[in-house]
Amino acid sequence: MKNKLKNFGLCYIFLISFFNNAEKFGDPGEIIAIKASSDDIDKYLTVEINESLYKLIPLPFEKQNKSIYVNDEKININQKDFGESRITIKNNSMVNLSKEDSDRAFKESKIIQKALNNYSKFLVPDLNFISPVEGVISSRYGKKRYINNQPRSPHLSLDIAAAEGTKIISPSKGEVILVGDFFYSGNFIVIDHGFGLISTYSHLSSVLVKENEFIKKGQKIGEVGSTGRVTGPHLHWTVYLNKVRINPESIIQENFLESLL
Ligand SMILES: [Zn+2]
């Protein structure tokens, strides 16, 4: 009997270690939750789910069919077909840029990049995001993009079409870290939610917040418009975690945190 128990115990230990070492898989653009230790708190966005501590790791779109490593843990990123989106932009100067416009767009991309790199480690993000606007999804995350039949970078954002002037709210609390009028994005807002979680809002007709302003979840930040390079009024909404663009539809689903387990 004693031996049987011992065998059972060994078998149990073997199974536990087998499952702990089992390779992890996830879809591109999603977030994966990995058990965290107290050392991780300063380095990662960590959350408590069902009384255990997890660190949240974004899975980059570009790493499909490849693996990433977090400390010693291997995470495999699946290949996924997100479909394609073909749009026509009649204004040729918005597609084949003049020297002046391409210089402007380049300068602006540096300003935006700088903002994305400077997130706060003091703000603790509220991960229960709500949708920033009521409308119809017109282009999902991950679509292969063609503009006037020319292949472009994939669309790693969510487009929500709504009438010009429809209110846009902040999906979570945060600090406004950039407001501007940019060549591609038009009137544009960047919100820092803390610990590498950042969201951006493009093509607005009006902006109601200022840089360095702290905003609450649900606060009106602007209105839907068609500024910058667009085919019609919509919100182009991008969400970053640690500079990786993630699928905004995932973070607004109900029970988002529980869905990560
Ligand atoms: Zn878009």
Structure description:
It is a single chain. The chain is α+β, with helices and mostly antiparallel strands. It has two domains: 2-77, no CATH class; 84-259, Glucose Permease (Domain IIA), CATH 2.70.70.10. Helix content is 18%, strand content 38%. It has four helices and 20 strands. Strands 8, 11, 13, 14, 15, 17, 19 and 20 form an eight-stranded antiparallel beta sheet that branches. Strand 13 and strand 14 (186-194) form a beta hairpin. The protein is globular and about 75 Å long. The protein starts with a helix and ends with a helix. 29% of the residues are buried. The model has no long low-confidence stretch (mean pLDDT 91). The site of zinc ion has 5 residues, from loops.
Describe the protein's topology:
Layout: H1 2-21, E1 24-26, E2 31-35, E3 46-49, E4 52-58, E5 67-70, E6 73-77, E7 84-87, H2 99-117, E8 136-139, E9 143-147, E10 150-155, E11 158-161, E12 167-169, E13 174-182, E14 186-194, E15 197-204, E16 206-207, E17 214-215, E18 220-223, E19 234-241, E20 244-246, H3 248-251, H4 256-259
Parallel strand pairs: 1-6, 7-9
Antiparallel strand pairs: 2-4, 3-4, 5-6, 8-11, 9-10, 11-19, 12-18, 13-14, 13-17, 14-15, 15-19, 16-18, 19-20
The structure holds zinc ion.
Tell me the Rg in angstroms: 21 Å
Counted by DSSP, the helix tally is 4
Averaged pLDDT: 91
| Global geometry | globular
Q: Tell me the fraction of residues in β-strands, as a range.
A: 35-45%
CATH topology term of the largest domain: Glucose Permease (Domain IIA)
* Helix content, binned percent: 10-25%
For the termini, the CA-CA separation is: 37 Å
